[in-house]
Task: inverse folding
């Protein structure tokens, strides 16, 4: 018996990677080929989220997330995950009113960073995320320091994510720009980097990064699998 995972989606590529990870890696947790926990997903239009983020309307973002939460609760989900780092800015407004408990992506990543012995972690993500306290707070709670890209890099980072990666466009030149940003974080003393946009793991990994990567998408999915298949849960 396993728990039913509810996925609150935002951008398609990140949500798809999370879903694939849940399904493909579920077999190892459940001990049978092709097995995985029950999974349901709901997504509002990304355009609506972007409009609210541009206005800085976190209450509006929270209401969208709670709308998805209610639909997933009605579908029978036992707990929720959101494979989108940026909208976790509204999580403090979501959790008190949610019909179901959530795993927090930044808390999952911070726990992994601490377990692996990192101490100074670079954070890549949208301009909304990098300008927020989502990762600084989560990493600080785990005793770790967060380092953000330099200001001139943030606009280009955000452009690559929103104009290319979320649309499924993967350009070698853009990946090279991201790699240079990681080189810069390494030069500033970072010992790991959070891929804090759920699309970044589609173009970056330990094989092409100057720093060890913390893949927020897959780490969240794996945490959900552990919770869904933990002994004694039903």
Result:
């Amino acid at each position: 018996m396993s728990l039913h995972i509810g996925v609150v989606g935002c951008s398609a590529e990140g949500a798809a990677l999370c879903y694939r990870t849940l399904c493909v890696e579920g077999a190892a947790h459940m001990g049978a080929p092709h097995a995985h926990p029950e999974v349901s997903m709901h997504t509002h239009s990304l355009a609506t989220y972007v409009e609210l983020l541009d206005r800085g309307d976190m209450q509006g973002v929270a209401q969208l997330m709670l709308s998805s939460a209610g639909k997933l609760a009605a579908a029978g989900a036992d707990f929720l995950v959101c494979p989108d780092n940026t909208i976790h800015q509204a999580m403090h407004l979501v959790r008190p009113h949610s019909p179901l408990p959530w795993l927090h992506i930044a808390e999952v990543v911070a726990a992994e960073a601490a377990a692996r012995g990192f101490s100074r972690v670079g954070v890549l993500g949208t301009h909304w995320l990098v300008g927020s306290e989502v990762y600084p707070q989560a990493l600080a709670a785990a005793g770790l320091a967060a380092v953000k890209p330099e200001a001139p890099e943030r606009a280009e980072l955000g452009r690559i994510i929103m104009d290319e990666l979320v649309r499924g466009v993967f350009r070698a030149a853009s990946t090279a720009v991201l790699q240079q940003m990681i080189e810069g974080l390494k030069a500033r003393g970072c010992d790991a980097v959070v891929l804090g946009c759920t699309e970044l793991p589609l173009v970056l990994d330990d094989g092409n990064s100057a720093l060890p990567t913390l893949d927020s998408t897959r780490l969240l999915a794996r945490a959900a699998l552990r919770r869904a298949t933990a002994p004694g849960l039903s």
The first helix runs from residue 12 to 30. The radius of gyration is 17 Å. Strands lie at 5-9, 39-43, 79-81, 120-124, 145-147, 192-195, 213-215. The chain is about 50% helix and 10% strand.
